[in-house]
Amino acid sequence: MTAPLLLVEGLTRRFGGLIAASDVSFAVAPGEIFGIIGPNGAGKTTLFNVIAGHYRPTSGRVAFEGTDISGHASDEVGRRGIARTFQAVHVFKNETVRANLHRAAILARRHNPLAWLSRHPHATPDLEGTAAFLGLDKLLDNVAGSLAYGLQKTVGVGLAMMVGPKLMLMDEPAAGLNPSEKIAAAALIRRLRDERGISVLLVEHDMPLVMGICDRILVLNQGIPIALGTPAEVKSNQAVIDAYLGEDYEFA
Amino acid sequence: MIVNGLLGGLIYVIMALGFTLIFGIMRIVNFAHGEFYMLGAVGVLILFGGFGVNYFVAVVAAGLLTGALGMIAERVLFRSVVGEEMPGMIMSLGLSIILQSIVLLALGPEEQTVARPFSGIWRIAGAVVPWDRTVVSISAIVVLVIFYIFLKFSRLGLAMQAVAQDPTTASLMGVESGTIYASAYGIACLLAGLGGALMAPIYTIGPYMGQNPMLKAFVVVVIGGLGSIPGAMLGGLLLGLTESVLSTLMDSTTALIASFGVVLLVVLIRPNGLLGRTVR
Amino acid sequence: MKLRVVYGLILLLAILPWFIGSRYIFHIATMIVIMIPLVLGMHLMVRIGQLSLAHPAFWGVGAYASALLTMRLGMPPLLSILVGALIPSLMALVLGPIFLRIKGVFFVLLTFAFGEIVDLVFQEWTDLFGGNSGLYGIPKFSILGLRLTQIPHYYVLGLIAAVLIYLLMRAIERSDIGAILESLNEDEMLSRSMGANALAWRVAAFVVSAFVAGISGGIYAFYIGFLSPDPFGFQTIVDLIVMVTVGGAGTVLGPVLGAIVTVPLPELLRDAREYQLMIYGVCLIGFMKFAKQGLISFIVDKRSGA
Q1: Per-residue pLDDT at A118
Q2: Which chain A positions have a beta carbon within 8 Å of C180's beta carbon?
């Protein structure tokens, strides 16, 4: 097996007495689409936020390309080559799609006022090409906030792509989308990996999407990892079935 | 000294409670808060000093008038900027200087005084306590107790508390948000007006008399935690006592710099105040 | 189109004093051009979503510093103004990383406290600053053997500085830096996720805005020739907020308009200060209620940029 792109080791995060994530370990290999699922309150979002640099881990570590990034601030995580998308739409609503993508590129390149002293380590992709890849090329001059919800989420993916990431963290990419948009989102995530070589770590509620596109899946329940494996392995795991019992989930 | 500190503290609490209520509920930093304090004092100056109305009646009337004015100001001015921090600040700054200039035009720039309704002193444990300060302190405590009862036991009070804690629960309480804004701003101004009215016989009255109490309220609220009602109480008493102790130990300039230093420290160490809720 | 008319009008106003030729008009015009860099500094902070009450203090530090550099160290005035402006920016560089961690209300209070402390220092440190009785005997501004003795000379000096700083601020606004600052203000979490160091950018804006405030202070010191702590207190904060609000914070041109409209007011109403306060108050409330984008919104649509 090749060296992992992202390595999470023994990660624990407590809020006061509440343990939101307990001793979680996993690795994302280069070129992998990795999913994290779990019933409500399973600690998925906490785990995501620790990796994205919003919370410090209480213990354990996160390493990216062999470098420890535990507790790094979110902008520092971003500069290492980890982009992220948000569950709700986060775009510059008053700007055109083109201006949005342009801003993402300059935010990444000129990450601080003295940035010309230290060059951004990752080349940022070309704007037109990214828009074409996302199917936004016809909408470049539309104001982002005026687009349909699903398209705004696509713009969000575009913003993350403009950073030139090796790994993209996606927080519920299917949330708020209608069934046909969900299918498009699944295809897009796969193409990110296949055509752009971007590995993906996603947190998601939507079972069919996760089962359909992920290479491997980590299942959390009340902050504790209960299963890790391919979709087929996870689906037949008794602990997983028990955890989801009584919840309204369909295993496709 | 302690009694002076306690009295100062009580007035700060009255000011800070209203200030924190407005911020907690409307996300508006009410720079006009000191001017409502000033209006309360001016009310007493006119009613008690001018027309010879009974002091307590004058205090209550001045407070109610100030509160009513506050409700009108909320409806006409602040409703459109609820939740927008910067426009809210600018709006309240505008109201503040308008009220100052009106009083300046009406009364002139000279500081005025009203006759003390109570005179004499009494002694406790060797300390000399003037009667007027005693009466004002007791009245301030009565005001605070009434406010506390209102918050704890009335439906509106409970709703206001809930909104101050967490704005998203506003609609859940089943009280219309417009009512909450109007009553929060009105009650806050009522408190400020009562504070000013009570202090009228003790300090001189002028158009700019509200600036210092408003600044103190701001400081208290930052120390106690913006939007936190217990924080405002604790912070107000702490500031009143500390100030009175500091001012006997060093000159007022040093005391002022020292108190700003304390504020700086609190803000840096606990950005949400001593009793503030953590916002993520 | 309309925008060109505005530029034309401003140009016309700029040369108007020579046609009228009165000392009084030249004085007002000079005060306007001195205030422009200061209000532009304040405006840069508003652009990053922070209301700084420290700017009158930065202005004062620039004024006292450049006056003292020339008086005590015999520095040439132009150099004193530039070096003098570095002192407030240095203060901003030291304070920024502390103050700018905090947004909104707390920042307002911290900068207010800072301003009060600076004002107290001006008052109390009498050996250096002359205290409340003031600092006298600031020499006239001179450059290359040319001594500026008349008000119109200072008007030209102030006008050059105002134009240069306006162009600098406009360049910042239109550059990538402007886009970055706006992105951070609009959606900090998103901007940071793409790698932007929000604090570093804010500190940079704070430093630049303190620098231009300092320049304004230096020119003011040489023009007035006498400094007291008076102008560097709360009143100037209100003036600046009025200028930004009346002109509009959306573009760099807004505060310039604000300064042109607002600065003459106290001069015109010199005998009726209470009415001035009233007008200020009505302006603040009126614009917040009916035209949050200020005067500039009547001239240009914000989206088209100015």
Answers
A1: 58
A2: 103, 106-107, 110
